[in-house]
Amino acid sequence: MDSKRKVIYKIMPFFLIAAIIVLAGLFFLYGGKKYTVTVSPGIQTERDKYRAGEEVTVKAHNVPDEITDIYVDGTKAVPGTESDDEWVVVKFIMPAHDVNVTTTSVNISADPVEKEETVLVTYMSMTTGTEMPIPYDRYLLIRSSSGELFIDVENHDDGKVRITRYGVDPGAYDEIMKCILDADMPQWSHYDYCEPLDGGYTECRFLYEGSYIKVSTEDNMPEDGYGHLGSVANLFYRYLSSGRKVQ
User: Fold this and answer.
1) How far apart are CA 39 and CA 213, in angstroms?
2) Would you say 61 and 33 are in contact if contact means Cβ atoms under 8 Å apart?
3) According to the model, what pLDDT value does residue 168 have?
4) Does residue 18 surpass a pLDDT of 70?
5) Are 149 and 172 in contact (CB under 8 A)?
6) Does residue 126 contact residue 134 with C-beta atoms inside 8 Å?
7) Position 197 pLDDT exceeds 60
8) Residue by residue, what is the 3-state secondary structure of 81-92?
9) Which of 56, 129, 157, 239 suits a disulfide with 172, CB 3.0-4.6 Å?
């Protein structure tokens, strides 16, 4: 009898440890405080309550001739690989507080009858994966109805956008588009998916044969795609440095 008791006493700690692990797992799955995800009209999510550490997926319709961005607590989120022509999809890890998700859309219609200005090319590069949001700029090459060329610099900082406009040399469009076409960017969707570098997101959109094409470090692109995107950025910087501030 004593030997049986000794065996029971020896195995009891293992049962206790196993029970604690099971209870902890159940608490993680079914217990703990849930936080609210509040979304603006037009944004979809699976549910409105999540626990800290859970993955949240939100999406918004990708409207033709518009740039649609999703912001999580005022910080622009990087679109996921699930994004396509119909949806902009963003995933993030739920923090230990309520979250507000909003969206903005910028009309970049190329129809001069409906819009006095045409967005020809846009470029942006931002740092990702940091605890605190880092400000970034988006550059838009624009042609007015009178044929003038401008570069608008959108400074995104803490959920606020400040726009500064510069008049630039008429040759800016031809040179930037030559860089884009020499890199074969209209055909990048036919390349294999290139694993993005950690800590950053770069995107270029351009008007080509009546439609807007987006290439980015989250989409298919050649192995030297980063270098080609950097060349587009350098042209923007060069024409800005010689441009004149108009507003």
Assistant:
1) 28
2) no
3) 95
4) no
5) yes
6) yes
7) yes
8) CCCCCCEEEEEE
9) 239
